[in-house]
Design brief:
279 residues; 0% strand; mainly alpha
């Protein structure tokens, strides 16, 4: 009986994994096959394999007279890179302080930051736009970056705090005894040890900010700027849409963040589990 139960479990797990992978792959399949298919054929046979494949959709998107893809790509790269760099620096420093400080009020601060993870960004979007309007940063890339930093910093602090607790405090004490300042200790001793956590923060926040739609649409406005997600939205007209161009835009918008993830994937799991198994 035990052998039968074991054999069942041996094929149930792979079968469940294959089924889950297939469900996740279906949207990717539709995008991939329709990128290289004429627009009229997409509407008639959306699931058919493109035979022969054509690069016309990609060429049309890359050579649009208004440069929609290139402008959107430049804005998304600028906003994402600035946001994740500032978020990483602030989150690492604040996470280090919370992990090493023994004061009671730091626990209250940590609870306040963690409470920020429970609030959807759409809930505070209207108050944020009022603040940005008063400061003159509404409809600017700087305002969007500031919003990203303010909203996502609790997640970065959460990851870094858990990971820093697994770093021996004796390393910092030895550096202080050797005459190093606290700033030098953090940047020369502690921060280089945080590469797994840094990779996790960069991947998560980079993907979230890159894929964000509603916040850039509201903060930048329909006429002031566009990102890759809002660019796809703008490419769809009220009464008609070039489906080939839409699928091509989605495909091209996915490539940068996919390359970014593949470049940092080795450190990804270590950063997620580091704070959970130590401290």
């Amino acid at each position: 009986m035990t052998t039968v139960d074991g054999s069942r479990r041996s094929w149930l797990r792979p079968a469940a994994a294959i089924l889950a992978s297939a469900l996740f792959f279906v949207p990717l399949y539709y995008v991939l096959v329709n990128v290289f298919k004429p627009g009229d054929l997409i509407a008639r046979e959306p699931a058919s394999v493109p035979l022969p494949p054509t690069p016309a959709n990609l060429h049309a998107v890359l050579t649009r007279p208004d440069g929609l893809f290139w402008v959107s790509l430049a804005n998304s790269l600028l906003v994402t890179l600035l946001s994740i760099v500032v978020l990483t620096v602030l989150s690492a420093m604040l996470g280090h302080y919370l992990a090493r400080s023994g004061k009671r009020w730091t626990k209250v601060l940590a609870l306040i930051l963690l409470a920020g993870l429970m609030i959807p960004p759409q809930v505070i979007l209207i108050p944020v736009t009022e603040v940005l309007r008063l400061t003159g940063m509404m409809a600017t890339l700087q305002g969007l970056v500031l919003f990203n930093v303010g909203y996502y910093v609790p997640f970065g602090v959460f990851v870094f705090t858990g990971f820093i607790r697994g770093v021996p405090v004796e390393l910092e004490e030895a550096a202080l005894l050797d005459g190093a300042s606290r700033t030098q200790v953090f940047w020369r001793i502690v921060f280089p040890l945080l590469r797994p956590a840094t990779a996790s923060v960069l991947i998560f926040l980079g993907v979230w900010i890159w894929n964000d739609f509603i916040d850039p649409l509201i903060i930048l406005g329909p006429s002031q700027g566009t990102t890759v997600t809002t660019g796809i939205y703008r490419s769809i007209g009220q009464y008609q849409a070039d489906l080939g161009s839409v699928f091509a835009l989605m495909f091209l918008a996915t490539l940068p963040v996919l390359i970014f993830y593949l470049a940092l994937q080795k450190q990804f799991v270590k950063g997620l589990t580091g704070g959970a198994t130590k401290g």
